[in-house]
Each structure stands twice: as structure tokens, then as C-alpha cells.
């Protein structure tokens, strides 16, 4: 599910009362609900979320390809407003997000995506293959050898994250710290925490942002063979280079 702002003011509604993405049975298996929605109400308004939900592939493509009508500016906004105390702690903790990729429309998005594509070279992808193969084989041997497993829980839950960490240049000893930060972010942005929980989560989220800032500052001073370093160095003609805050945002989002 991706959040979008309809910018032309259309406020008509359809039935979306049955959509509850926070509880079972949806959390356990969302596919039956979306199969019914695609057939009966492929676009519906969810009063619980105060968002529109689009369920058909071609409609979703149209949304992505029509930024003048469907803006991505609020994509990283919390589903529910955070309380003033949590907002204060987040700002006090140094959290300074900026529009880059998922939360930006053209032409700003186009510039950042172009530079990020330059940084993520075919050479880097090819160089990752031995690591990805070895990591996957080790994970399969360790977790799937009994002949019965849950592929999401036992393989797909952490395998992509470990690959992304390696791409970004995050050392193995920091993996637990980064995963804790991402959990804080996910629960705050796309969950429904109460005010006490929000206070705890924003502290973890701000610490996660500061970690990303420190990583970028380190690569700016001492370049390494990783995507974070390449983002800082990416150039394309007259396009303004990515600044440290933009690179921090990209690392944070990934």
C-alpha cells in the first residue's frame, strides 16, 4: 500500500469499511481481501485510514505515471499525526528529512533518481553476486535444511536487508542497531502507537537518522567502495550533485 495525495480535489467516496490493515485476517493473509476488492471495488476510500486504496495493476501504474494528479509528497508522512511531545523530540533529536525519491515528484525526483542510478552501476551489481549467492546458500542450509520452513520468516525476512546493508557499506556489527532503528521508523510511520509508544519510537527513529548522517559524513571524508560513497560522487552534466542531507535521506529510506 502506498499513500498518495489526490491534488485535483475529488472527494467522492466508495465503501472501504471492511479494509483493516492493522489486524487479522488481513495481516495473516491480505491476498483474499485484495482479490475481492479488485473484482468489486478496485478503487475505494478507507475512512479508517482517510486514504484511497487502489488495487488493480494498471490503475496503480497510472497513478505512478501521473504525478500532476497523484502527488507522492506525503508518502513518508505518518498514517496518524504524531503527538506534539513526540514531534518535539524528533526535531530535537536532529531528524531532518528532505524530499528525495519516494516522497518527491518530478522534476526533483527525476534529478535524484538519475544521480542514484549513476551511483548504482552494473559493475556494483555484478560485484555483489558472489556475496549474495554465498549468503543465500548459507541461509538455505541453516534454516531450510529440515525440509519444512516458512520462506518469508526464515529466508525473505532478513536476506534482502543484509544485502542492502552490504550495498550501503554498513558493517556487520551495526546490523542489529540499524534493524532496531528501522523497526522504530516502521511502527511510528505505519502503525498506530499511543503517545507513550510514540515517545519511545521517535527516540529510536532520531537515533537511526543520526546513524545515517554519521555514515554519510564518514564516507564524505574517507571514500569506500560502496553505494553511499558513490552517491556523494555521482555527477551528470549540469545537474546539481546530491548534498549530504539528500544522501542521508536515501540511505535512511533504503
**CATH superfamily name of the largest domain?**
Cytochrome P450
Largest sheet: 2 strands, antiparallel
State the distance separating the first and last CA atoms: 17 Å
Radius of gyration: 20 Å
CATH class of the largest domain: Mainly Alpha
Based on secondary structure, the structural category is: mainly alpha
Beta-strand content bin: under 5%
Task: Write up what this structure looks like.
The chain has 254 residues and is mainly α. It folds into 2 domains: 1-70, no CATH class; 72-253, Cytochrome p450 (Orthogonal Bundle). The protein has 11 helices and 4 strands. It has helices at 31-40, 57-64, 84-92, 108-119, 122-143, 151-156, 159-168, 175-190, 195-221, 227-233, 244-253; strands at residues 5-6, 43-46, 51-54, 70-71. The strands form 2 sheets. The chain has a two-stranded antiparallel sheet with strand order 1-4. Strands 2-3 form a two-stranded antiparallel sheet. Helix 4 crosses helix 10 (227-233) and helix 8 packs across helix 9.
